[in-house]
Amino acid sequence: MNAHLDRREILKLSALAGAGAVAAARAGASAVAASLPSETGAIKWDKAPCRFCGTGCHVRVGVKEGRVVAIEGDQLAEVNKGLLCVKGYHVGLALYGKDRLTRPMLRKGGKLEPISWEEAIEVVAQRIMTSPEKFAIYGSGQWTIPEGYAANKLMKAGLSNNHIEPNARLCMASAVTGFLSVYGVDEPAGAYDDLDKCDVLILWGNNMAEMHPVLFSRVIDRRARGEKVTIIDLGTRRTRSSEFADHYWEFKPNGDLAIANGIAHLLLKNGTYDKEFVERHCAFRQDKTAAALHGESMTFEDYKATLAPFTPEHVAQLSGVPAEKIQMLADLFGNRDLRITSTWCMGFNQHNRATDINRLCHSIHLLSGHFGKPGDAPTSLTGQPSACGTAREVGTMCHFLPGGRLVENAEHRADAENLWNVPAGRIKPKMGYHTVLLWEKFCTPTDKGGDISTVWVQVTNPGQSLPNLHKLFQAKKDLEDKFLIVSDVYPTATTELADLVLPSAMWVEKNGIYGNSERRTQQWFKMVNPPGEARDDAWQNIAVARKLFELGHAGMKDKEGKFLFTFKDEAGKDVPAWEWPHYHDLNVDKALFEEYRAFSRLKHKDLAPYDEYVKARGLRWPVVQQPDGSWRETRFRFAEFDDPYVKKGAGIQFYHSTTKDDRAQVWFAPYTPPAEAPDAAFPFWLCTGRVLEHWHTGTMTMRIPQLHGAVPFAYVEMHAADAEERNISNGDSVVVKTRRGELRLPVWVNGRSQPPRGNLFIPFFDERLLCNLLTLDVTCPISKEPDYKKCAAAVVKAGLAAGAGTF
């Protein structure tokens, strides 16, 4: 490598590395395996999905002498075909940070002191017994499916308590409400195969080159083979994805709502919408209250009239995208000889009108007929390895039950009670607190309405990831009657305020199952032991449930008086899995998964038996058994050629239609401005997000030397002209302020992304520089997901700011 390359070029190359690695993967090479000594015979290899994002890449894990010593891309895996991103190639090192948590610790006299597991389980159980209704569990899309299922069963079937949430509320809840309100069932209809077939790829505020580089490389690789794929990047700042795009169009915050309406307007005006598809398969909907999931029906003529104001010229004023570009987008959607795939991630979901923009994107695909064929799909991408499989499908949100059921639906409750074999009425009919409200209640004094007294955090780091941290997390510090339990693998911003810390096993230190962004369920086995006394999160839930059973909590018994988590071995003998020495006497993951499978059929999310996933590199649901006994996955839902639940001759059938007539809903939603906008005191827009090398709050990636060394601390990016006006140079220390707080950071001008004038960007991976001290806690009124992407901010050179901290 040229020794004179500057850091910007090196970082740019790292974003390009995925595409370049394709050739190596096809040649049978691996970036990590190629560096191993030749005597690899002593290494034992097995499969596992990557621990990081929701792409679901499979890795081959090499173990020697009880440690993970090698990682390579799994060439048998359809998702990544041997390729990994820079995080994936280093995922094994995430296990071996020097500060792993290895013993339970209880805060005594202000200091965390080691205690036994027996005492720790007793402490948790006693907190619950004191006030079961004031107890909450907060997990994440990093829970494995069995872990999330165990936590959900403990809460809803055992404690009659719906105060359980995953951090997917912060990232995927809006995709959920979008899917549900359009199709009547959650999760995308298409698959990653669409990236291999589309003629046009539209990135809706989605930096796929950095956030989902392995998927992006599938498209770039097609270009390398001479195929024509037009990439259109719609964004509020230039990113690494923009450099690959044929077109980059910058829109104003919330301008995406206007753009989608403008496309729909022109499809109708020009008569280029798919009349036959719409007449056969669609109905029309609007939400006059701006807060209803299902809204009200409207006629086609009413729909057309509401879109009339969204002319290209008006959309240009609202969005900043030139009118001719809006016309170009409409022409593309009006051309049914093309295959168009839309992808999005947090740009849509972390939005004050997030459900609306999700609905509108689906709607223009339906209106134009770009749906139900390989390459024609609207597809949301997830950020966590099991945000789909656990947070959504298992139903670990406060309003869900497993398999797409709702706690407020009496039939769904009765069905779940029957499957769980608990008495009728055990499941509480009122939904629990969503994430932002849950933490607000926890951080509010009890005498002022703060009716959550104990929170058990598992596999996530809310002390860094919640918005408006002063209000929603750090306010806990002065509340002596509030008790925070944290199960984790490393010290975090959350453990700083924890009253009890429980050390957890991680990734291949335990069995696991994840569900990725394309409905693919993926399994792996334990390969190495966790350090010290660290134990599986599923065991922790089961052990607490057993202690509650012993303390006499009636909810820990089923209708027959048996313990809620009863396991039997192959001989039919009870196995006391709550006792750690016996936890591995059977495969608890398999037992929990087989129990959970029964929930998967109501919404046609059918799962195969556990042993089928052992043999496969994942299967996309619905997975249906064939006459010969084999199990067949489904790539494209609602399309007769692939979906076994579509009636013969229907072509397309939306069999979970909210209007119960097999029709999807085409929505109108008005343009709505952001919740907070720049003014004289706070003249900048502030956006937060991720970078290629780090994942979420950096708990794992910041402990991987290669990734830490590439991007060791957070920074604020700003436009060169804005910096020059303020006499700010690259590397200078600045203070970024919002109405909620301030933060001192180094500035990066002309960095890897380029915010437009008046815009700032801060990544959120650095626990020393908590950008969520600045962000809004305003949420989408339907999904209750916060808007992290736009709030008003000011920036001044640090030397001019009295009292600013250091970075």
Automatic annotation (TrEMBL):
Enzyme class (EC, first level): oxidoreductase
Cofactor: [4Fe-4S] cluster; Mo-bis(molybdopterin guanine dinucleotide)
This protein's UniProt keywords: 4Fe-4S, Electron transport, Iron, Iron-sulfur, Metal-binding, Molybdenum, Nitrate assimilation, Oxidoreductase, Periplasm, Signal, Transport
Entry binding sites for [4Fe-4S] cluster: C50, C53, C57, C85
GO biological process terms on file: cellular respiration; Mo-molybdopterin cofactor biosynthetic process; nitrate assimilation
Catalytic activity entry: 2 Fe(II)-[cytochrome] + nitrate + 2 H(+) = 2 Fe(III)-[cytochrome] + nitrite + H2O
Span of domain 4Fe-4S Mo/W bis-MGD-type: 43-99
Record flagged with keyword Transferase: no
Cofactor note: Binds 1 [4Fe-4S] cluster. Binds 1 molybdenum-bis(molybdopterin guanine dinucleotide) (Mo-bis-MGD) cofactor per subunit.
Binding positions (substrate): F764
Gene Ontology MF, one: molybdopterin cofactor binding
Binding-site list for Mo-bis(molybdopterin guanine dinucleotide): 87, 142, 167, 171, 346, 350, 461, 487-488, 510, 537, 688-697, 772, 789
UniProt keyword tRNA processing, yes or no: no
Annotated GO CC locations: extracellular region; membrane; nitrate reductase complex
EC number: 1.9.6.1
PTM summary: Predicted to be exported by the Tat system. The position of the signal peptide cleavage has not been experimentally proven.
Function text: Catalytic subunit of the nitrate reductase complex NapAB. Receives electrons from NapB and catalyzes the reduction of nitrate to nitrite. Catalytic subunit of the periplasmic nitrate reductase complex NapAB. Receives electrons from NapB and catalyzes the reduction of nitrate to nitrite.
Family note: Belongs to the prokaryotic molybdopterin-containing oxidoreductase family. NasA/NapA/NarB subfamily.
Oligomeric and partner information: Component of the nitrate reductase NapAB complex composed of NapA and NapB.
Protein name: Nitrate reductase
Gene for this chain: napA
